[in-house]
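Issue 218. Parser rejects a valid record. Input:
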Amino acid sequence: MEKLPRAIVNPINSLNLLSRAEIESFTTTRGELFDLYRRCALAILNTDSNEDDAAEIYENFSDFDLRLVPQPRGLRLELFNAPAQAFVDGRMIRGIQEHLFSALRDIVYTDIKLGADLSGSSAEATNLVFRILRNANVVLPDVSPRLVVCWGGHAIPREEYDYAKDVGYALGLRGLDIVTGCGIGAMKGPMKGAAVGHAKQQIKNGRYIGISEPGIIASESPNAIVNELVIMPDIEKRLEAFVRLAHAIVVFPGGVGTVEEVLYLLAILMHPDNAESLPLVFAGPAHCEEYFAELERFLVGCLGEEVKGYYQIILGDPHQVGRSVRKAVQEQHSRRRKTQQAYYFNWELAITGDLQQPFVPTHANMAALELHDDLPRHELAAQLRRTFSGLVAGNVKAFGIEQVNKHGPFQLHGEPRLLQHMDRLLRMLVKQKRMKLGEGEHDYQPCYRI
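Output the parser choked on:
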């Protein structure tokens, strides 16, 4: 665990986000905002580390600190006791340098520039997501649809990583760009494969967009392929950013975080106001048949047989995934052109407030979740999404881990039939070690009790 005692970092491009008065506010009266950036910066400097326990990362680098130094043409960062792996011969790796200032850009813009109220109306939440993405130059006009969002686990076997890379290669060869949660595993694999596919096709402007949020970034530090990093203020805005940007979505095997993402999307697609679907493909190597069978059993058991109409499952053959996704993206292109919808942002999708309001996974909130059969299917999917969001927090987020350590496992209550389906899925995830942290030797300790 090598550290660099002191380093000076300048922005690669001119950064005139902060006046001196704003820097003073950022580092004194807004101490919580500065601490938020400090934690994000540490996660970024920890890029490509296999450590995914946020609490352990913060403990190992408890002496890490930074200072914003005003300059006539912007500002620079002074770092103390930063992870040495972020530097080569004393100079910070360029991609990490860019990500540091991307995180500062997003945190400053969201809080200081927008003065964002994260509990506003549904329309206000969507507008906030759009403005953050626009400020980061992620939403680009006059560009044909080609963004494929890839979801999946970060701690996965090598065979699954190679498969995700092969799928990314198939997508890259077809001129498609990649959006992921920016971490390792099934987030890094598609980007790495697509980079090779783009290189073979002589595509010089390939996009590898990583979207994170402060609560998860320490356990999913940005991988080295990401060339556009965006930090959304919370998991709900992060998920909405994925869906609003996507022209198609591919889901690889993963843990509770992947299931949360799937439920979030299905809660949108099953809403009666959303007539148009967003292409969704579940993909994995042939040996993942059991994983997708259990996931489908859970989805059908909770949301009904009609849920099968919102996705397709492809096992093996990465190029079949590439062909299927490319066809779906072309259909999205034709539909949006015909209906005069924006290519760069899915404005037409109705996303309800229960998917947008930040869910705080306290024990009281987890116990109060409405897991009942009499809810409309899209509302039940939203409640299940919150359940799995809480399990993600209990597994890898500093706040959730602290809550579980202090008060014990989360208590889940609801319709016995629904809980049985959930318990079976969670047992499968534990059995396949999809809820195990990093490369540790310890068995998984459940953060929940049904």
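Fixed in the parser; the record now loads. The radius of gyration is 21 Å.
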